[in-house]
Design goal:
Helix content: 25-40%
Radius of gyration: 19 Å
Strand content: 5-15%
Distance between the termini: 48 Å
Order of helices and strands: HHHEEEEHEHEHEHHEHEHEHEHE
Structural class: alpha/beta
């Protein structure tokens, strides 16, 4: 009898066996030499847990909320384009799996199923990720997300220009499925994701993503606004001053620009700068429940997963996405207990040790 995957590495290994070579490389690839992609893992591994013992940890509460929406534990599904490359049901099964785990799915602008199609099957809360390529298209997407009952808008801000993944260029990879949110529109929705280096080649960036555009988007909708891709304290402070509701600290899994700090390395300065004035989340490199706990101890409210959602889809569709999330839930629960913590909302900062070369001497969040 075949054993169920024990950890995310098992899901990764099984997904690699079933996905075509060029699809696997598209999912796994990072920018250029992929140093930033690897650094996301090495930085998380360099953080150590400092167990607190002799405490009653028999009852542990993993529930929390993001922007007022309750979720069953502090892990959500990040936006990623084109889920059908891993499973025919694509984003539909991703939404089903996230809903079964009682958490949020963030739907990509470049999804293979539309806003309305995903909303129709979702049993949990959904956010809309936005790639801003001109106000007309952005307003169209936001209005549809509002009507479909989406809970927030997540604006990606770390892609001022397009960058090809070199693995996919070498493989001449073309995304084979339509961009469903633009079905029937007079635009070229079959544009190559990586050979052209631009998943939105059919719609040029008419208006650059600047703080003026953030203000415009903030005025456009009453939905909470999250900025995805903030990398440092200066932009975090400006985001607070512009009234955003949340920041997703992210280096895009190392897929946009190489030779940068990992997401988690940027956290201490950002947390200190924001000082509780907006909610913080993190993605890029999360592979273990202990990674989740480290991020919580550093000051975020929840973390997101990207590549692992594709592994889950490839292995078993919605059940695979649910399985990936449940592995992280179980691992986080155990890590909480060993560190003497009973609630993800009250994680003590001193349970994580930071390497001296990070230049952080004390956590006081």
């Amino acid at each position: 009898m075949r054993l169920e995957p024990v950890n995310l590495a098992d899901y990764e290994a099984r997904a690699r066996l079933v996905l075509p070579y060029n699809v696997w490389n598209e999912i796994e690839s990072g920018a250029m030499d992929e140093v930033a992609t690897a650094r996301n893992r090495t930085a998380l591994n360099s953080l150590v847990l400092r167990p607190r013992l002799l405490r009653d940890v028999r009852e542990r509460d993993l529930t929390t909320s993001i922007l007022g929406t309750p979720i069953s534990f502090p892990v959500f599904v990040c936006p990623a384009g084109g889920h059908k490359i891993a499973h025919p049901e694509g984003e539909l099964d991703t939404a089903r799996g996230a809903g079964k785990s009682g958490t949020i799915m963030v739907l990509s602008t470049a999804s293979n199923y539309s806003i309305e199609e995903v909303a129709a099957v979702a049993t949990g809360p959904v956010w809309m990720q936005l790639n801003h390529r001109g106000r007309d298209l952005s307003e169209m997407l936001v209005r549809r997300a509002e009507e479909a009952g989406f809970k927030a808008i997540c604006l990606t801000v770390d892609s001022p220009i397009s960058v090809p993944q070199e693995r996919s260029v070498k493989n001449r990879y073309d995304h084979p499925y339509e961009r469903a949110n633009f079905r029937g529109m007079d635009v070229q929705t079959s544009a190559s994701v990586n050979v052209t280096g631009n998943p939105f080649a059919w719609q040029p960036q008419v208006v650059p993503i600047t703080w003026q555009e953030v203000e415009w988007l903030r005025s456009l909708t009453p939905l909470p606004l999250v900025l995805k891709g903030i990398r440092g304290p200066e932009d975090a402070l400006l985001a607070v001053e512009h009234g955003v509701d949340g920041l997703l600290v992210s280096n895009h899994g190392g897929r946009q620009v190489d030779m940068t700090l990992s997401s988690v390395e940027t956290l201490p300065e950002i947390v200190a700068t924001v000082a509780g004035r907006t909610e913080l989340y993190l993605d890029s490199g999360i592979r273990r429940g202990s990674d989740v706990l480290k991020a919580l101890a550093l000051g975020v409210r929840a973390v997101g997963i990207g590549r692992p959602l594709f592994w889950g889809l490839a292995v078993d569709g919605a059940e695979g996405v649910h399985g990936v999330l449940e592995v992280l839930r179980s691992e986080l629960d155990r890590a909480l207990a060993f560190c003497g913590q009973t609630s993800v909302s009250e994680v003590e900062s001193h349970i994580v040790g930071i390497p001296h070369d990070w230049g952080v001497t004390e956590l006081d969040f």
